[in-house]
Amino acid sequence: MDNVGKNLTEIISWAGEATAKSPTTNEDFMDLFVAAMSRCLYLAKITTTLAAPEELKNGFPRNTAIVVGHIVRLCKLYEGFLYHTVNRQQEMGMILFRLIFEAAVKTEYLIDNDTTEDSFKSFVITSYQSEKGILKDLIEKQNQRPLTPIESRMLKTIRRNLKTDQLSEETILQNKNWKLDGKSMRDLLTDLDKELGYVYLFSSSSHYIHGDWFDLKWYHLTKGDGDLYFPHLQYTNSDPRPAAAGSIIVLHTIQDFLKWRKTNVAVTVELAISAMLDLIRKLDFDHENTLQSQNTAD
After folding, report:
1. pTM of the entire structure?
2. 110, 67 contact by CB (below 8 A)
């Protein structure tokens, strides 16, 4: 913990120094954001250790493990997001941005609904959507002929998972609603009083997940004369705006997780998270002002 304490103190000190800087170019902003994101990643990674030192030794109950698993997933997605940001691969980073947002929303929703088993049970059951189709097909084939070795292994794997999760085949085969608590992402965000997040963060980032026309013309094609286009194989330089949004999402989520765990974490941890949030908000604000000044000049 001594090294953790020193690292947290360094983060707070660095955030204060970085706040005083006045970047003007996209590269200046990106240099600061990359340095900030590296520190945000460190804070995210130490969260599970600080939140549950005893359970790290003995293991988490399933419901708690589902939330912890989301935090770990968030760390890995954010680390990938940072990697593509560092390497100036905006189009790849935006795919991970959408996944970061989804993980954060589900984490917050499950934390807010932790008083009953229902939401956690729904999360597990709805994870079997693809397995339902495979299970149904393999049972039908088994009734008609012997299964091939690979089919047999697939069936055993599904049944082994069902047994571990204490679910029956009938539960999966009869289930028709494959959304968490029967709610769409818009519904989840509405429950969290963040409905606009659906339009501005989740829905808009669908471009990058599904590769629609916006994704193609923004990142993968270059416009020529008239209605002509050319392949664009180079990656697009990173943009400070998604770097800011993704980092704020991660920091808020680990804040919520620490509060949910009711852990008596050191004040330095809270100060470090708050310092990084303040810095990133300021950088985002300053970058927006820079863009506005450029637009006005144009």
Report:
1. 0.94
2. yes
How many angstroms separate the CA atoms of 241 and 249, rounded? 12
| Torsion angle, alpha carbons of 16, 101, 186, 208, to 10 | 120
Q: How many helices (H) and strands (E) does the chain have?
A: 15, 2
Q: With 0-12 CB in 10 A as exposed, 13-18 as middle and 19+ as buried, what is 228? A: exposed
pLDDT tens sequence for the chain (298 residues): 568 889 999 999 999 999 999 899 999 999 999 999 999 999 999 988 777 666 677 888 999 999 999 999 999 999 999 999 999 999 999 999 999 999 999 999 999 998 889 999 999 999 999 999 999 999 999 999 999 999 999 999 999 999 999 999 999 999 999 999 999 999 999 999 999 999 999 999 999 999 999 999 999 999 999 999 999 999 999 999 999 999 999 999 999 999 898 776 667 888 999 999 999 999 999 999 998 888 776 5
3-state secondary structure of 175: coil
Please report how the helices 62-86 and 26-51 are oriented relative to each other, as an axis angle in degrees rounded to 10.
Answer: 160
Per 3-state DSSP, what percentage of the chain is helix, strand, and coil (rounded to 5)?
75, 0, 25
